[in-house]
Amino acid sequence: MNYFLTETTFRKGITNYLNGQAYSNADQDDLWQYLTDAAHEDATLPPDMTVKEVMDTWTLQMGYPVIKVVRSSDGTSATLTQERFLLVKNENSSDTHDYKWWVPLTYTSQDNTNFNNTQPQVWMKDSEAEITVSSLPEKDQWVIFNVQETGYYKVNYDDDNWNLLIQQLNNDHQVIHVINRAQIIDDAMDFAQAGQLSYNIALSVNEYLKSEEEFIAWNTALLNLEYLEMMFSRKGGYGALKRYLLDLLIPLYDSVGFEDNPSDPHLEKYKRVLALSNACHLDYQDCVQNSVSLFQKWMQNPNNNSIVSPNLKSTVYCTAIAAGGEEEWNFGWNQYLASNVASEKTTLLYALGCTKELWILSRYLDMMFDEESGIRRQDVRYTFASVAENDVGRDLAWYYIRDQWDMMSAYLRSFTTLGDLLLTVTNDFNTREEKHELEVFKMDHADALETAELAVDQAIERTGNNIAWMDHNYDTIVEWLNAHGYASQFSRH
Question: Structure pTM?
């Protein structure tokens, strides 16, 4: 509302509402009326429009829309349609509601670039199946809708416009506002995951990231790429995906450096944490070696807590313990016991689950459910999650839940916590065998699940969705990675 009414009008309407209703009851419609009156006075809303008819479509129904933009053959006009965005569509849903919104449309183009005007240029009404926007540039120039993402909607384009955006990002990404760069990444990856856009386009969108230095764009990209990495982590194509991710990330890693500088701006610090945590997670050796070196210095001087910067502790601790063995793990455990700083203890507890030694992970799981171990009952969710999110520990954590459910429920005394742990452990399940294991688990523990049954059902449904995603996308992504030079280089005999 602040954007389509303007801040001045919005504040005016709110002030009038607060003054006018100071000593009487009010409901949502009263607020809408005051805002409408202010908007009509200031001419920021057409006389035949009200805030109520706009906002009721946003507050009285679920979700938000995706606007599909299909340009004409010459590019100078576009047909726009809207539908509710769903990452996963439920084919068996009984919901017959026709979801439509009043959508404030803003747009800019390659021939008349303006990312500062966030006032609606066109309104799409909830009663309109489609609208046409004219006066666009010719077909060889891109358009972008939802300037600075001031509207709460996603935008999907025809393939030609997507390819024009990819070309612009690769040639000079700074022509496009950073918020819209993040939007383009987020929308492309979400549409690909939802089956509404080819991963050939979505992955190509990300390639410009080798030149990107803004935190907001990188944070968006890495959050979206997590799902791909999770789905690929146990498949033969993971090596190619890992090379693709590192190819994008290494320039950012090199630019921020490993040394944390207290005088850096906050966004620079966030960017460094983002780059280092992901580079180390992907086993980039410079990152791993730096982490191990810092951790060893700390081991030599355990009373000096300033050796590792607070911003880098999570990454350094986890990486060094993963690269080390029993000695590093025992040191981390002793530091946990000795510390009386809550945040430090939590960081260490999580890092201890990063070890790649299976027997240590097994011992760690047993310690979590031992009152005498030093791990508090309420901290089990952190420790168990760290093991479950470890490639080596994931199966171990699943077997533990499956075989020790009764003991765990008696110890934790919370089926909500148990359900959360089960959802964490099964987050990357994507095979029919794993789905069958969950179904068998539900049958075997039917009388002991209680409120955690919902979590089991969610895990089964999510696994089914992951299986469908793998069936539809895995081969396409592997082919794209191979075609772009990320295939494994090994000899066949």
Answer: 0.94
